[in-house]
Specification:
Number of helices: 9
Largest sheet: 5 strands, mixed
CATH class of the largest domain: Alpha Beta
Strand order of the largest sheet: 4-3-5-14-6
Number of strands: 14
Structural class: alpha/beta
Helix content: 40-55%
Strand content: 15-25%
Shape: elongated
CATH superfamily of the largest domain: Periplasmic binding protein-like II
Number of domains: 3
Length: about 300
């Protein structure tokens, strides 16, 4: 029985990795061991589990069905025999972990924290993809992700790690020249920035208290890059609405001032998530927990200044 469970564990790892070589790296073994385990299961079931070529391996329909049935069973067995408080061996903390996060939040909060984690665990291979395009956790084989706002996906295990507030901001010089808006309707007469949503190609709307919204026009400064938007606002070209991880330091320094603070919207949640796909390797749990702590610490530092 123990040999059969080990075969399934190797098979599931190969199914998650999409490569026998990477599966071997995760398991601390050789690609030949993975190949032999898969071949033994194929002979047992009389079905191919993977389509193989010189460039890649791709799981078959039967392999997908077997993986779906095997994951919860293996998870139950591993949970049954796990020892509370046991520290994972170094070999369990080695291997690749794929991570996705929004660009600005990723650069500010995740990359410094992950650099420290990698230094503590030399066996970790961190594959960090910073993008404002929502990643498909299954197709892109994401292990851990970060997302701001709504997260409604039954395939995900998610933990709230913090909140992001939003501020309407401008330079003091722009306010002196054009005046500060007193009502939401006054924004229509002011130059504004427009940030494009890379997922839809449309302009992000600005959110305010009581569910009110304002959609910037396209006649002042349009960009798909948050850093470029900040640059335009700091140059005094326009008014913009920024998340606090961009706005807070600039407001404290006096480079920007807050407008219509009484209409600030409720904060958005920041989620750290991973896909529900059976047993979670120790290295993924380690990175997941580390990112949750890093996002929380980053938010706390912004609030406390």
């Amino acid at each position: 029985m123990s040999n059969q469970l080990e075969l399934l564990r190797i098979f599931l790892t190969a199914a998650e990795c999409g490569s026998f070589r990477e599966a071997a790296l995760r398991l601390g073994g050789s690609p030949q061991t993975v190949t032999r385990a898969v071949k033994e299961l194929e002979e047992h079931f009389g079905e191919l589990l993977f389509h193989r070529s010189t460039r890649q391996v791709r799981i078959t329909a039967f392999g997908e069905q077997l993986a779906a049935r095997s994951r919860p069973l293996l998870a139950d067995v591993e949970s049954l025999f796990s020892t509370p408080g046991r520290v994972p061996a170094a070999s369990q903390l080695a291997g690749r972990v794929r991570i996705t996060a929004p660009r600005v939040l990723g650069r500010g909060a995740l990359v410094p924290a992950l650099a420290g984690l990698a230094a503590q665990h030399p066996g970790l291979a961190l594959d960090v993809r910073l993008s404002d395009v929502f990643a498909d956790v299954v197709d892109e084989q994401i292990d851990v992700g970060v997302r701001i706002g709504f997260l409604r996906d039954s395939r995900l295990v998610a933990r709230k790690a913090g909140e992001v507030a939003f501020s309407l901001v401008a330079t003091p010089a722009l306010v002196r020249r054009l005046g500060a808006p007193q009502r939401l309707e006054d924004l229509s007469a002011l130059p504004v920035t427009a940030l494009l949503d890379p997922n839809t190609g449309r302009t992000w709307s600005w959110y305010f208290a009581s569910g009110r919204q304002f959609t910037p026009g396209s006649d002042t400064f349009v960009t798909d890059d948050p850093d470029a938007e900040v640059g335009a606002i700091l140059a005094g070209l326009a008014v913009g609405q920024l998340p606090d991880y961009l706005a807070a330091p600039l407001l404290r320094s006096g480079a920007l001032v807050a407008l219509l603070p009484q209409l600030a919207p409720p904060p958005w949640d920041v989620w750290v998530y991973r896909p529900q796909r059976g047993p979670v390797p120790a290295r993924v749990r380690l990175v997941f927990d580390h990112i949750v702590a890093a996002v929380a610490d980053h938010g706390r530092a912004l609030r406390e200044g």
